[in-house]
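ok trying again, last paste got cut off:
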Amino acid sequence: MNNKQYYDNSYLPSIIKWGRITSIIGAVAIMLPVIALRYFFGIEVDSAKLTSAITMQLAVTAVWWIIDPVSIFPALGTSGTIVACLSGNMHNLRLPAALTATKASGYDEGTSEANVMATVGVCISVFIINS
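nice, full thing came through this time. structure:
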């Protein structure tokens, strides 16, 4: 099995599977503070205020849910995009790290090798910033 076949048949399906799992875990984890406030501290939020706050936040950020992945995906690839979405700072930290790693490796952007190198760059930036 050559590198391209391994990338398409083994690497990408595994990345997509674990990306879905970690994204679901991340979505649930985001709700933990609200759940803790409600059930452990007895603080209740009026549903009208909560709906208003959610609506305002969605109006501001919904467009970026489309723009960010579409504009950044070509440079980061599937796995780099998943890691960048979960860790944040996509434009000002993850993207430059991915592009630098890809350029330093010498691979052409858009290839499977470049996508792996971009993921390495994103993961290293997450590790360095969080350690």
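cool. Residues 108 and 114 are 6 Å apart (CA to CA). The chain has a mean pLDDT of 89.
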